[in-house]
Amino acid sequence: MEKSEFRKRAHELVDWMADYLEQKENYRVTPGIAPREILDQLPLSPPEKPESFDQIMEDFKEIIVPGMTHWQHPSFFAYFPANNSEPSILAEMLMSTLGAQCMSWITSPAATELEERVCDWLRDAKGIDSSWKGCIHDTASTATLSAILTARERVTNFQVNENGYSGKEVFRVYSSAHVHSSIDKGLKIAGIGVSNLVRIPVDHNFAMIPEELSLAIKEDIAKGFKPLCVVSALGTTSSTAVDPIKEISAICHEFGIWHHIDAAFAGTALLLPEYQGLIQGHELADSYVFNPHKWMFTNFDCTIMYLKEPRYLVNTFSMTPEYLKTDLDEEVNNYRDWGIPLGRRFRALKLWFVIRSYGLEGIREKLRNHMSLAKTAEKLILSNPDLEILAPVNFNTICFRFHSTNLQLADENRHNESWMNQVNATGKAFFSHTKLDGKFVIRWVIGQTDVSEKHIENAWSLLMSKLEEIKKESISTNG
User: Fold this and answer.
1) What pTM did the predictor assign?
2) Where are the domains of the chain?
């Protein structure tokens, strides 16, 4: 592509992007297509000769866009949001244009130093201890794996990295049953084994019980196991339950265990001063992770990991072959040594654009609006005698279900799953689910960048219309 055509096409794409952002709620949230429907429209072989940009864009519009789930749709209420914003998108365009590989200070000094600064900004704004230092990862899954590996190396004096497992290691990692599945995967990758993940009982709010954690650790020590790490959740994936960080930190400190705080989604709420009490006691912990790409209007991917003592992380991952050595290595941060990949994108740029464009006040205003909308939805649910909420609404996630005393649990679960699927099939809204105490519940997560009260009202009307069909089905089943 010639530079002149690039300029022309770039302008066309920006127009399309702006139109999409203005019109995104006119799309179905989820596509109404069958498996392989997209695949069958794609040629079996790549083209031998160049194709025109017009034809490529036409296929993008006619084949790709109709097969997309529109995560930026204001009626996307599933999972956790992966919201973006105009400043973040523009920064991504600049990142792609610069095409920098930001593995070391020397490969892009501005990228390294901007990363340090924006991490410090957010650390201070969130009330995290000012001595902690942060770095940017792709996802919380990677950051949490990095924490587990670092805990492993600290306790073995970095001998597993050097010599491999001896076969005598009997490590144990602890979490509640409600932490993210990436913990299980991390234990597989780290060679610790999923069978050595100890699930600690939770209370009626689905938060870890500290006394049970302490008891499990003592029992494992008596059996000859080596407690390695505790992963607590500041906002579990299922219900955004908040584990007691202060008490867990004290227990980990007592036994010399690494404490990793997973605040992937809800950690953004700490930008609100009224929520910073949730992290009281983190000073005794070792690491903390949150995702600006979930609820801070920074498009995927962008995760920040904070550490009390980064030297353990750096010693775990540092590997500097001759061709990467520079005279400045002792004076600068080489973030390639702060995680798993060697190559690193310039993710700090989009954080910088977002923070400066909104200001902390603007971000806080949006967060408070989302939580206010969640309270509106919560009141609507509580006003209906056929519905119940099964977990505290700590932030902006509501776990609710249809409940009938005339139905067995299995039938209730089936009706709730059918209810959610019928709503989602309309393409007008998108919800996901979890199970709490064996009960199928619908999760209503209100955190998309441009969601407003009208989207809550429309979703409620849709839920109610489909609920009537479910109630008829329930009567039929019970009869």
Assistant:
1) 0.93
2) 3-79, 100-345
